[in-house]
Amino acid sequence: MILDLFAGPGGWSRALGVLGFRDIGLEWDAWACRTRAAAGQLTVRADVAMYPTWPFVGRTQGLIASPPCQAWSMAGKRLGLLDQPLVHQAVEDLAAGRDTRDRLLAACRDSRSLLAAEPMRYLHALHSVGEPEWVAMEEVPDVLPLWRQYAAVLRSWGFSVWCGILNSADFGVPQTRRRAILLASRVRTAHPPTPTHAQVAEPDSLFGPGRVRWVSMAKALGWGATDRPVPTVCAGGGPGGGPEPFPSGSRKALSDARNRGTWAPPPARTAAPRRRSARQGNALSGNATERWSWSLRSNNQSNGTVRRSDEPAGTLFFGHRANECTWVAEPSSARADDGTGPAVPEPIRITAQEAGLLQTFPADYPWAGSKGQQFSQIGNAVPPLLAGHLLAPHLGVALDPSDFTLAA
User: Fold this and answer.
1) What is the enclosing helix (H) or strand (E) of 387?
2) Is 403 or 45 the better-scoring residue by pLDDT?
3) Vertex 222: Cα angle to 216 and 223 (nearest 5)
4) From CA 70, how far away is CA 67, in angstroms rounded?
5) Longest distance between any two alpha carbons in the chain, whole Å
6) Does residue 207 fall inside a structural domain?
7) From CA 86, how far away is CA 142, in angstroms rounded?
8) Counting CB atoms within 10 angstroms of each CB, which of 153, 233, 328, 330 has the fewest?
């Protein structure tokens, strides 16, 4: 079997399914388990830290692990960085067959920090019978020093290992999501996959074909070639609730405009400019056809990443109200700087379907739970297309990126 620790809503599993394989996932979150069940993925709902290793000994070909990143992520308090020495100690002890987790956990500032050491408990048990054949692990970039510690242990056990930072956009994901990756194998030389995309398209050369340009959000969302795409309304608010940014009656108008690649705010929702004369106000009433270009803000904090729709998204963060992703509009043509131009439409929260597509999940992926629960799953998932690039060499199959549907 292929064992998937901290399986989440199925990023690795989706990639394996496209490649013609299946895994069995261990996952604790109830809504992620429901999503996996609806997607037809094998799942054991369990705490990875409490589950025994013996059911997998003697029957595991590959081990996948994406420990929860909240303790380390820049979107959280990052207490995992303070706990890092304790996590390193846990990995060292577990690699030697010593279980000191209870003592170390009591000293951790974030109870989730030690979860990054759990894969070593499984690896030690499997190593006793010469398993697994290969390992693939993924985490936020700050975990790279821990992956290097894993790499040293695995090399001492006879594995070839590579670990480093990869940018998801270099592999066709419409998101510049950087992740620390560890790849290990007993039967082949471990090395990172060859990037297929680049920020600027590269011409073919004597050394092979050039890389194509990064995939934009507009392309991934099926907005076509226009540079003035339109986001969809997220009815019922975004993660954490909140008022709907536009009345539900606007959905059809927005949907129709999306097909045209343009959108004008409904007159009832057009805010008055900050400064305008009566004559200017009358003139503005004819601006209903003003076209807007849209960008995605990765969160509602002042330092949130903002990317135009003809670029890849920044890393999608969810799980906290401050991490809501919203579409923000700018006029696609020049307008006066004196506040006399047409009112800018209000921000529109990204939908779960759009966020899933930017993670390279199919448009009809069966996300379970409330909007907040769906967004949390999406933000924590491994992009299936990136996972496919990482897994294909271990499985001895060729990856066809066109098998990963990007357009809605």
Assistant:
1) helix 384-395
2) 45
3) 80
4) 9
5) 83
6) no
7) 15
8) 330
